[in-house]
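note to self — DONT lose this again. spent like an hour looking for the file last time. sequence + predicted structure for the chain T wanted, 231 res
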Amino acid sequence: MSEIKNQSPQAEPARVILVDKPIGWTSFQAVKKVKYGIKARKIGHAGTLDPLASGLLILCTGKMTKQIEGIQAQTKEYTGTIVLGASTPSIDLETEIDQTYPTEHITQDAIENAARDFTGEITQTPPIYSAVKIDGKRAYEIARKGGDAEIKSRQVQIYDFEIIGVEMPQVHFRIACSKGTYIRSIARDFGYHLRSGAYLTNLRRTKIGDYCVEDAKHPKEITDELGNSNT
């Protein structure tokens, strides 16, 4: 956790706070916990994480909120597990499996080749269960009510897609990518590419630029540590 204080004693401390967001928390819940725990008047975050994802969430307070856009633009790194042979509407464990697919034809070489095919500039469509806005509404709000909506595709950059291990039907990976990349979309498209289906069972953001999750703390630890700093 890094801290930069303003010159004026009356000004709110300008901080970059590294949060290790737990599984099950929304990014909003993590921000709210820290905001009220440290009595921050001005706070923002540099990129959300899905509720079922864990890992690095960067918060900025005071004048450091001006740096959020720059932090968001930096390369992000994730680790996780893709399960082949089935799909869910949310492409993760938020929803139940809705379809199964064959996996007998999928080899280690095919998996490695697919990862290489997804490296570089790719076109992807964000999941319907995402925070993308459609006519003023979040896509996940529409999806959870049983609706459907057309989401525009986007260009993203995959700098590295490493297959860490394969224990069929599980594929463990590490991905370094640009801002705006949806790892769930990669999982879905990865399954299609292998003539099967796929969804995520876990996802952890490990880096944003030079910031690492090893330096981050649980929201409660942060509020315990900094809770009295603004009083």
